[in-house]
Amino acid sequence: MTFGNLLAITQTSVKRMLAYSSIAHAGYLLIAIVVGEEWGGLPLVFYVATYAFMTLGAFAVLTCVADGDALNESYRDFAGLGFKRPFLGLAMSLFMLSSAGFPPLAGFAGKFYIFRGAVLSGHLGLAIIGVLNSLLSVIYYLRVIVAMYMEEGGAAGKSFAQAPYVYIAIALAVIGTIYLESCRRRLSTGAAWRFLPGSECSLCRGQWGLRKTDADGHFRGAGQPVFEFS
Q1: How far apart are CA 185 and CA 202, in angstroms?
Q2: Burial zone of 202 (CB within 10 Å; 0-12 exposed, 13-18 middle, 19+ buried)
Q3: pLDDT tens string 150-191
Q4: What pLDDT, in 10s, does the model give residues 82-116?
Q5: Contact call for residues 37 and 208 (beta carbons, < 8 A)
Q6: What are phi and psi of 162, to 5 degrees?
Q7: Residue 217 — left, alpha, or beta (φ > 0 → left; ψ -120 to 50 → alpha)?
Q8: How far is it, in rounded angstroms, from Cα 103 to Cα 219?
């Protein structure tokens, strides 16, 4: 996890930065695996879904920045993109902030549940390491946003007319990231464990060990409340 973050910081290519940062994200997932099914099962699923939308969206933006044989994947190629292509700039900013774990985005919720599970299961050291690494990742994720809005020059980026399907994919990734955040609000406020309106998430009550509720509607396993419902 730390190794991946340190390598990502040293990169001059946004694509390679995203590749090395995936090592750090794999480390967060390993924390959930070490924590175990009782405390880490649902956070693991939630974080995988969140990471998928953020990463696919970021790579789709990279595709729009590329121009023919010119990959345009360095930080300086992103300079001024937020003003030249506002949609691409806003989408990339959302993906970077969520990946860094800024609230109230879905990436923050995913990391919070993993670290919370680590603390409640007695793995405080893992939670501290995860938090410190998350802070370390802010360096290279914010670097992309700084380039897009505080620097000049760079690639022009493709318009919607030039790459309509890529733009649609980016829009879907943005929607997915925002929708997962709304799911997180359901999880924390108690509007049942639902990922789709009107349907119950079978993973939560079955595969991930949330088996029984008490009279107050609290799911319990191993003698302690896992999540509470208001």
Answers
A1: 18
A2: exposed
A3: 998 888 888 999 999 999 999 999 998 888 777 665 555 443
A4: 999 999 999 999 999 999 989 888 888 889 889 98
A5: yes
A6: -80, -30
A7: left
A8: 26
